[in-house]
Give the backbone structure.
Amino acid sequence: MYSCLHHTGLQVVRESSNLLKCEKIFADNLAAIDENNEILLQTGVVDTTDEHPPIRTAIIHIDDKEVFLIFERSGMKNAEISEVYKGGGYKLTLTYEQGSSKYGRTIYNGKFLVEGTASVIEHEVAGRDCNL
């Protein structure tokens, strides 16, 4: 696993943002999520108003700031799903494959790449659907 975690300001949080209707959460591995309640990346929707549809969003924490990234596009190649989000001076590319745990829960394995003005963060992750 390649990670610039300690050199870039990317931070683990312990709960989902209260502004996000969380759909997926990602961390170093599933045990980090399930046993330690760690979250590196969360995706879902933000419901802004009754007049506009919810906005697909990803959230990361960098240098003590919650960074909202707005969904741009997605694609699929073979079994790998790719999603791109942008915002706050960052571009996030999340790629993952969907699978099932031995308990029948949907899980995700992949990586994300965060490109900012002064840094690039690449991190392998595992994830699951939110139920926080």
User: Anything to note?
Assistant: The mean pLDDT is 88. The two ends are 26 Å apart (CA to CA).
